[in-house]
Amino acid sequence: MKEAKKLKSKAEAMADKTGKAFKYLEAVLSFIECGMATESEGSAKAAYAVYSEAIELIRFTMSLKSFSDTVAPAQEKIFAVLCLRCQSLVNMAMFRCKKDIVMKYSRTLSDHFKSSSKVAQAPSPCMARSTGVPSPLSPMPSPASSVGSQSSVGSMGSSGVTATISTPVTIQNMTSAYVNFTSHVLKAFDLWDQAEALTKKNKDFFAQLSTKVRILALNSSLVDLVHYTRQGLQRLRQAPKTP
Prior knowledge:
- About 70% of the residues lie in helices and about 0% in strands.
- By secondary structure, it is mostly helical.
- It has a domain at about 1-95 and about 185-240.
- Helix 2 (about 15-40) runs antiparallel to helix 3, helix 3 (about 45-65) packs antiparallel against helix 4 and helix 5 (about 100-120) packs across helix 8.
- The radius of gyration is 28 Å and the shape is elongated.
- Mean pLDDT is about 80; it is low at about 135-160.
Protein backbone atom coordinates (compact mmCIF):
# COMPACT_ATOMS: atom_id res chain seq x y z
CA MET A 1 0.00 0.00 0.00
CA LYS A 2 2.90 2.36 0.76
CA GLU A 3 4.29 1.89 -2.75
CA ALA A 4 0.87 2.51 -4.30
CA LYS A 5 0.40 5.76 -2.38
CA LYS A 6 3.96 6.82 -3.17
CA LEU A 7 3.38 6.38 -6.91
CA LYS A 8 0.04 8.17 -6.63
CA SER A 9 1.74 11.14 -4.96
CA LYS A 10 4.37 11.26 -7.72
CA ALA A 11 1.63 11.30 -10.33
CA GLU A 12 -0.17 14.14 -8.56
CA ALA A 13 3.00 16.25 -8.70
CA MET A 14 3.45 15.82 -12.47
CA ALA A 15 2.28 18.48 -14.91
CA ASP A 16 2.21 16.52 -18.18
CA LYS A 17 -1.15 14.77 -18.41
CA THR A 18 0.13 11.77 -20.35
CA GLY A 19 3.05 11.21 -17.98
CA LYS A 20 0.70 11.73 -15.04
CA ALA A 21 -1.69 9.10 -16.43
CA PHE A 22 1.12 6.58 -16.91
CA LYS A 23 2.29 7.08 -13.32
CA TYR A 24 -1.28 6.76 -12.01
CA LEU A 25 -1.64 3.43 -13.81
CA GLU A 26 1.56 2.25 -12.13
CA ALA A 27 -0.05 3.17 -8.82
CA VAL A 28 -3.16 1.23 -9.82
CA LEU A 29 -1.07 -1.89 -10.39
CA SER A 30 0.42 -1.51 -6.92
CA PHE A 31 -3.07 -1.16 -5.45
CA ILE A 32 -4.09 -4.36 -7.26
CA GLU A 33 -1.07 -6.19 -5.83
CA CYS A 34 -2.00 -4.92 -2.38
CA GLY A 35 -5.54 -6.20 -2.90
CA MET A 36 -4.24 -9.61 -3.94
CA ALA A 37 -2.03 -9.81 -0.85
CA THR A 38 -4.95 -8.83 1.38
CA GLU A 39 -7.22 -11.37 -0.29
CA SER A 40 -4.64 -14.15 0.14
CA GLU A 41 -4.67 -13.43 3.87
CA GLY A 42 -8.36 -14.31 3.93
CA SER A 43 -9.82 -10.82 4.20
CA ALA A 44 -12.16 -10.58 1.20
CA LYS A 45 -13.91 -7.52 2.64
CA ALA A 46 -10.65 -5.56 2.98
CA ALA A 47 -9.50 -6.70 -0.47
CA TYR A 48 -12.79 -5.49 -1.95
CA ALA A 49 -12.13 -2.04 -0.48
CA VAL A 50 -8.63 -1.93 -2.01
CA TYR A 51 -9.94 -3.03 -5.41
CA SER A 52 -12.60 -0.30 -5.18
CA GLU A 53 -9.85 2.25 -4.63
CA ALA A 54 -8.01 0.92 -7.68
CA ILE A 55 -11.16 1.26 -9.81
CA GLU A 56 -11.70 4.85 -8.68
CA LEU A 57 -8.10 5.72 -9.55
CA ILE A 58 -8.43 4.19 -13.02
CA ARG A 59 -11.59 6.22 -13.64
CA PHE A 60 -9.81 9.38 -12.57
CA THR A 61 -6.86 8.52 -14.80
CA MET A 62 -9.14 8.02 -17.80
CA SER A 63 -10.74 11.41 -17.12
CA LEU A 64 -7.43 13.27 -17.56
CA LYS A 65 -7.60 13.02 -21.36
CA SER A 66 -9.86 11.55 -24.03
CA PHE A 67 -7.57 8.55 -24.50
CA SER A 68 -10.12 6.49 -26.41
CA ASP A 69 -11.32 9.32 -28.67
CA THR A 70 -11.35 8.57 -32.40
CA VAL A 71 -8.83 11.36 -33.07
CA ALA A 72 -6.53 10.42 -30.18
CA PRO A 73 -2.99 9.24 -31.05
CA ALA A 74 -2.41 5.48 -31.28
CA GLN A 75 -0.39 5.48 -28.04
CA GLU A 76 -3.28 6.99 -26.11
CA LYS A 77 -5.73 4.45 -27.49
CA ILE A 78 -3.36 1.65 -26.48
CA PHE A 79 -3.14 3.17 -23.02
CA ALA A 80 -6.94 3.23 -22.89
CA VAL A 81 -7.00 -0.51 -23.66
CA LEU A 82 -4.65 -1.20 -20.75
CA CYS A 83 -6.87 0.85 -18.42
CA LEU A 84 -10.10 -0.74 -19.62
CA ARG A 85 -8.72 -4.24 -19.21
CA CYS A 86 -7.57 -3.39 -15.71
CA GLN A 87 -11.03 -2.09 -14.86
CA SER A 88 -12.66 -5.17 -16.34
CA LEU A 89 -10.60 -7.77 -14.50
CA VAL A 90 -10.64 -5.86 -11.21
CA ASN A 91 -14.44 -5.78 -11.42
CA MET A 92 -14.38 -9.56 -11.84
CA ALA A 93 -12.13 -9.79 -8.78
CA MET A 94 -14.55 -7.62 -6.81
CA PHE A 95 -17.41 -9.94 -7.73
CA ARG A 96 -15.38 -12.96 -6.62
CA CYS A 97 -14.81 -11.28 -3.25
CA LYS A 98 -18.58 -11.14 -2.78
CA LYS A 99 -19.50 -14.39 -4.52
CA ASP A 100 -20.42 -16.29 -1.34
CA ILE A 101 -22.62 -13.42 -0.16
CA VAL A 102 -24.21 -13.13 -3.60
CA MET A 103 -25.10 -16.84 -3.60
CA LYS A 104 -26.59 -16.54 -0.10
CA TYR A 105 -28.61 -13.47 -1.07
CA SER A 106 -29.76 -15.16 -4.28
CA ARG A 107 -31.25 -18.09 -2.35
CA THR A 108 -32.86 -15.83 0.26
CA LEU A 109 -34.38 -13.48 -2.33
CA SER A 110 -35.60 -16.38 -4.45
CA ASP A 111 -37.37 -17.93 -1.46
CA HIS A 112 -38.84 -14.57 -0.47
CA PHE A 113 -40.27 -13.78 -3.90
CA LYS A 114 -41.67 -17.30 -4.30
CA SER A 115 -43.42 -16.91 -0.95
CA SER A 116 -44.67 -13.43 -1.89
CA SER A 117 -46.02 -14.75 -5.18
CA LYS A 118 -48.05 -17.43 -3.37
CA VAL A 119 -49.48 -14.83 -0.98
CA ALA A 120 -50.44 -12.56 -3.88
CA GLN A 121 -52.17 -15.40 -5.72
CA ALA A 122 -54.06 -16.73 -2.68
CA PRO A 123 -57.80 -15.81 -2.62
CA SER A 124 -59.00 -13.38 0.03
CA PRO A 125 -61.42 -14.58 2.76
CA CYS A 126 -64.31 -12.99 0.84
CA MET A 127 -63.42 -14.79 -2.38
CA ALA A 128 -62.80 -18.05 -0.51
CA ARG A 129 -66.40 -17.98 0.81
CA SER A 130 -67.79 -17.43 -2.65
CA THR A 131 -69.68 -20.46 -3.94
CA GLY A 132 -70.06 -19.45 -7.55
CA VAL A 133 -69.51 -16.93 -10.30
CA PRO A 134 -71.45 -13.66 -9.90
CA SER A 135 -74.55 -13.51 -12.06
CA PRO A 136 -74.32 -11.43 -15.23
CA LEU A 137 -77.51 -9.75 -14.01
CA SER A 138 -75.85 -8.49 -10.82
CA PRO A 139 -75.87 -4.70 -10.71
CA MET A 140 -72.56 -2.99 -11.51
CA PRO A 141 -71.04 -0.95 -8.67
CA SER A 142 -71.42 2.78 -8.97
CA PRO A 143 -68.32 4.96 -9.54
CA ALA A 144 -68.60 6.11 -5.93
CA SER A 145 -68.62 2.57 -4.56
CA SER A 146 -65.70 1.65 -6.86
CA VAL A 147 -63.60 4.43 -5.38
CA GLY A 148 -64.47 3.19 -1.92
CA SER A 149 -63.34 -0.33 -2.84
CA GLN A 150 -59.95 0.89 -4.07
CA SER A 151 -59.25 2.86 -0.93
CA SER A 152 -59.91 -0.18 1.26
CA VAL A 153 -57.48 -2.48 -0.56
CA GLY A 154 -55.32 -4.31 1.92
CA SER A 155 -57.91 -4.20 4.69
CA MET A 156 -59.97 -7.18 5.89
CA GLY A 157 -62.99 -5.83 4.03
CA SER A 158 -61.28 -5.63 0.63
CA SER A 159 -62.72 -7.34 -2.40
CA GLY A 160 -59.63 -9.47 -2.88
CA VAL A 161 -59.18 -8.31 -6.47
CA THR A 162 -55.96 -6.46 -5.67
CA ALA A 163 -53.31 -7.53 -3.15
CA THR A 164 -50.87 -5.16 -1.50
CA ILE A 165 -47.69 -6.78 -0.19
CA SER A 166 -45.15 -4.80 1.79
CA THR A 167 -41.47 -5.65 1.35
CA PRO A 168 -39.40 -5.90 4.55
CA VAL A 169 -36.53 -3.42 4.85
CA THR A 170 -34.07 -6.29 5.16
CA ILE A 171 -35.19 -7.65 1.79
CA GLN A 172 -34.93 -4.18 0.22
CA ASN A 173 -31.37 -3.78 1.51
CA MET A 174 -30.47 -7.29 0.42
CA THR A 175 -31.83 -6.66 -3.07
CA SER A 176 -29.84 -3.43 -3.36
CA ALA A 177 -26.62 -5.16 -2.29
CA TYR A 178 -27.31 -8.09 -4.64
CA VAL A 179 -27.75 -5.77 -7.63
CA ASN A 180 -24.62 -3.82 -6.68
CA PHE A 181 -22.42 -6.92 -6.38
CA THR A 182 -23.70 -8.67 -9.52
CA SER A 183 -23.30 -5.45 -11.52
CA HIS A 184 -19.52 -5.99 -11.32
CA VAL A 185 -19.85 -8.86 -13.79
CA LEU A 186 -21.89 -6.75 -16.22
CA LYS A 187 -19.37 -3.92 -15.96
CA ALA A 188 -16.52 -6.36 -16.54
CA PHE A 189 -18.05 -7.61 -19.80
CA ASP A 190 -18.90 -4.11 -21.01
CA LEU A 191 -15.41 -2.75 -20.28
CA TRP A 192 -13.82 -5.78 -21.91
CA ASP A 193 -15.86 -5.22 -25.08
CA GLN A 194 -14.77 -1.57 -25.15
CA ALA A 195 -11.14 -2.65 -24.86
CA GLU A 196 -11.54 -5.24 -27.62
CA ALA A 197 -12.92 -2.61 -30.00
CA LEU A 198 -9.86 -0.42 -29.46
CA THR A 199 -7.48 -3.38 -29.67
CA LYS A 200 -8.56 -4.08 -33.24
CA LYS A 201 -7.23 -0.66 -34.24
CA ASN A 202 -3.78 -1.43 -32.81
CA LYS A 203 -3.35 -5.11 -33.64
CA ASP A 204 0.42 -4.99 -34.17
CA PHE A 205 1.20 -3.61 -30.72
CA PHE A 206 -0.91 -6.18 -28.90
CA ALA A 207 0.27 -9.03 -31.13
CA GLN A 208 3.88 -8.22 -30.19
CA LEU A 209 2.94 -7.80 -26.53
CA SER A 210 1.29 -11.22 -26.52
CA THR A 211 4.58 -12.83 -27.58
CA LYS A 212 6.14 -11.65 -24.30
CA VAL A 213 3.28 -12.25 -21.87
CA ARG A 214 0.15 -14.38 -21.60
CA ILE A 215 -2.82 -13.25 -23.65
CA LEU A 216 -5.42 -11.80 -21.33
CA ALA A 217 -8.98 -13.09 -21.09
CA LEU A 218 -11.90 -12.32 -18.80
CA ASN A 219 -10.93 -15.24 -16.59
CA SER A 220 -7.25 -14.25 -16.36
CA SER A 221 -5.70 -13.89 -12.93
CA LEU A 222 -4.79 -10.51 -11.49
CA VAL A 223 -1.18 -11.68 -11.43
CA ASP A 224 -1.29 -12.05 -15.22
CA LEU A 225 -3.09 -8.70 -15.51
CA VAL A 226 -0.41 -6.84 -13.55
CA HIS A 227 2.42 -8.46 -15.53
CA TYR A 228 0.65 -7.79 -18.85
CA THR A 229 -0.06 -4.16 -18.03
CA ARG A 230 3.47 -3.44 -16.80
CA GLN A 231 4.92 -4.90 -19.98
CA GLY A 232 2.43 -2.89 -22.01
CA LEU A 233 3.39 0.35 -20.27
CA GLN A 234 7.07 -0.38 -20.80
CA ARG A 235 6.63 -1.04 -24.51
CA LEU A 236 4.38 2.00 -24.81
CA ARG A 237 7.05 4.26 -23.34
CA GLN A 238 9.65 2.85 -25.72
CA ALA A 239 7.46 3.06 -28.82
CA PRO A 240 7.93 6.06 -31.14
CA LYS A 241 5.02 8.47 -31.13
CA THR A 242 2.66 7.94 -34.04
CA PRO A 243 -0.64 9.60 -34.95
